[in-house]
């Protein structure tokens, strides 16, 4: 095990996502948020999420070389097709209709950069949506902001009523796989205060 952790090591979340901030706070009470200034390329397959997360981590690590930088990118996939953040409510409706009545996978590309050390993980969680009526989809789109969410839904919000079953890390579906992150941080020698 590498033991380079210090109490004063700054931790940076390379994301402006309020959900990722909320989740990271469960294990790291103090951290900075530095949204990366990188162009988000198109995502066609899960591996692309790791590439994007790495790009985000490297952009922030270049500005803060002493910090431990955490970056993540999440996407929804079904039958070989990616369902990213919808452009508008019409596309969000199509996404939810496509996810209705079957399993889909939520992948997160997770990257941690600490000086010269680098770790990555591609985490998959499978989610089963029950069949949704058009009326239910329209109700959901009226009741929750979905344009900033991969797959046009938030499992921690009202879309919870669509989920029949889940296999894997629930928090991964929210955008930050805490189990994988904890394992990486521990392996790198980071320890929580107290």
Describe this structure in words.
By secondary structure, this protein is an alpha/beta fold. It has a single domain (about 10-185), classed as Maf protein, CATH 3.90.950. The chain contains six helices and seven strands. Strands 1, 2, 3, 4, 5, 6 and 7 form a seven-stranded mixed β-sheet that branches. The two termini are about 20 Å apart. Mean pLDDT is about 95; it is low at about 1-5.
How would you summarize this macromolecular structure in one to three sentences?
This protein is α/β, with parallel strands linked by helices.
Mean pLDDT: 93
Shape: elongated
Termini separation: 20 Å
Strand content: 25-35%
As for the CATH topology, it is: Maf protein
Counted up, domains total 1
Instruction: Find the count of extended strands (DSSP E, 2+ residues).
Output: 7
